[in-house]
Amino acid sequence: MLPGRGLSEETKRSFFCCTVLLCLFGQLLCFCSCKNTKVDEFGNRQYRHIVEIPSDFESKSRLLLSGSDQSISGIIRTIKENSAFKNTIGTLQSKWKDRQSYYRNMLTKVKVTEDNLPWLYEMVTETARALKVKPPGVFVVFDGIPDAYVVNVQRPALVIHSALIGLLDQSELLFIVGHELAHIKFNHVMIMEFMQFLKFAVDFLPSKGLRDLTIKGLFLPLYEWVEDAEISADYGGLMLVSSPEIAASALIRMISGLQGEINVVAFRSQLRTVKQASGNSLNDFSLKLQEFAAPTPFVARRVEALYEFLESDKYSQLHSSSQYDTYEFWLSYK
Hints:
Blueprint: H1 9-36, E1 37-39, E2 45-54, H2 57-60, H3 69-81, H4 83-108, E3 110-111, H5 118-131, E4 137-141, E5 148-151, E6 157-161, H6 162-167, H7 170-185, H8 188-202, H9 208-241, H10 244-256, H11 264-277, H12 285-293, H13 299-310, H14 313-318, E7 324-332
Parallel strand pairs: 4-6
Antiparallel strand pairs: 1-2, 2-7, 3-4, 5-6
Helix pairs in contact: 5-7, 7-9, 7-10, 8-9, 9-13, 10-13, 11-13
């Protein structure tokens, strides 16, 4: 028997209406999908990532500052804005050190522009708009260690290692870009360059005892600030991805080189294990020295700080605004 034969007219009408509704629903889904996904010029499928930043973020951005960074970054900002500094140290930095660094980057690395790695150029430019900072120069260099860092005070440049681009998906990379631009926003680069100079000077001290005493008396207090500054910058990166899981997976990949799925819950349990074994204290001198020797503070601390921040009063105050500005990113699937 042919389909539809023997059915009442009312049943046929109902069947027809259901078919039309299903077609319309399918077209609506297709429209929504097309609106939020696209294929770039290289054939990569991309999805639309919308970031909402409070309109009064500029006045509230200090809520992102962690611990001692609240006072230190304010002092550095005051120093930078001082006319005497601008006319002396600032001029020396911009006309000599930063210029030489720029030339070196231009001669040894790939500069990211609208024509060269445009997707990365757009990511950094939009992130700068969202965090209210001037876009830095961006350079990519071949290096097997997944890393990114900002150099120069007056003329900042963001350097990204090729291994980092290959390791992270673009949502994780967005977190790292936000992290690095937050360093610029909070004036961290100046004091970090000062610490590099001090480390260089300490190596010339005549005895190991004197070097150890200098490290304990000078660098460990400064390193307390470094830890807080890294966490402040992590909060800045979190503003761009709104997901502690994405932020945590980026940090975990950078220390492990792991690809594929990351079990953030299992990683977080490692910190609890160490705390239980050490009597709930991570502040003994030997651990501090190990942390000082590492390129950045222990990642386990930083991951936990992300989750604590989401539950904090600071985060609630930051998002108590009635108006938000939206920023659009097109990110490629891994």
